[in-house]
Amino acid sequence: MREYLSLGTIGHNHLLAAGQRAFGLANGSGSSGPSGPLLTLGARLFAMAWAEFPLNAPLAAEIARLSKLFPASALTHQGVALARRLAAEGGGPESEEPNLLFEQGDFEGLTRFFERNAGRKPLLPLVRQAWQYQGLLSRWEWLEEFLRRSVAPRDPEVANLLLAEAQLAAGRYDRAATGLEKMARRYGPGAWGLRLAVARAEAGDADGAMGLLGELLADFPEHSTALLYLDSLAFPSALGGRLEGGCAVSIYSYDKARELERTLESVLDSDLGPELGEVTVRVLVNGSRDDSLAVAEEARERFGGTMDIVALPVNVGAPAARNWLLDAALRDGARWIAYLDDDVLVPRDWLSGLAAGVRDFPEAGVWGCRVADVRSPSLTQHGDGFLLWPEDAARAGRRLTLQEPCAECLVPPLLGYRRYAGSVTGCCHLFEAESLAASNGFDLAYSPSQFDDLDLDLRRLAQGKPVAYLGDVVITHLRESTHFLELSPSAAAQSRAHQSFLEERHAPQLEHMLRIQSGFVKADLEARRARLRAAGLLA
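Request: output the structure for the sequence above.
Response:
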């Protein structure tokens, strides 16, 4: 269980899976085994999952049932009473219309549906759908108004519960802290305390946040996300450092002229100065049929540094383009290569953040970042990903599967930690060029695209080189999340084929990769715990 919890202790579905694992282990422990602590742990994890989405009526019913068998350590009596009420009142049928509107991308029609049906009975199924869909779209102001106008007169307890969460996600931290303080005190700090700590820290009360996190960890030492967040507050990473030996910022593009224009604008406006070392920019126009080449040439005229442009007559695919850029970087004598997709926006200090990652995580094989969504600012497309165990893959009908607990979290400040992980996305990542070449670069079997970056992460992991997730470096992906986009039939078929090939290749080494991943994750968490204790922030 400790290994599973070390991946993260956030995310409604991840916490549910963790709780189910604890109950499964308890059932298999036998009458003489340590089933009691596992059952208590399972109930705690269910309570934490429910606090992230209180309108999950079946889960609320299970929490109410479990509370009769043994104490619900993460919830107060009022918290259990709320779960019991929501189980009884929140399980009515849901309308299919919001599902269809969301699938069609008619988000304005979705809003009109909720406003038109605000008086519907029963209330809670409608509120559940509004929270799910409008929250996924980061429409927090609308949700606040909806809760005040349409929910509070009929169910003030639910309205206040969700209002504090909406204010936290919207960045209204002072108000959120006030509301979450009440929620934690009334329903249970073990379930609401982490988000209260975020609200306090972001509202300027870092000491209060760290004190609360210390209390959470004293009560639940395996709360890995609380540990990571506490460490990030106590020891914020110092951005900066040099990429000695030079860095080639490398972008490849195919038929995305407008996105490429925005990408280049953000990259060339970012800090690529001499304090980072010698930085060059290279753009490979990968057989584009639009005006991508002209866009790149116009950007070069505005750029004061070194920028190279290469135009290929055909699209050779992402893996080949990445390998060509790697060869070019090696020919130029660059020690580092930073790959960027042609549809991202980078912050001014992105390369400084990656350079700091090299300093802080020297054993990594790749350094990556958190990827935010262009449509929904609260949404994280990708962050720290981890291989799961064979039984988890089997339950998903696969031979190999990954988990990103962070992708379920709609509170971005909570994800600003840095850590070793199993995989990061390829939208923005940094490699040591010679080390990457020694791993044979990106595999052309994944042409024209999809899964070549994950395949490389796993090959490097098997070689003893994990990834470093740098959550304080945040790029915005101009391609919307798969929540909002549906792959074409051909792209979906290609994705399935590449995923099958990836599983076939790496499943035989899964246990080996899990040992390496777990070793780095465990050592990293233990080091953080030790320095927090030394600083007097942890018992």
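The radius of gyration is 24 Å.
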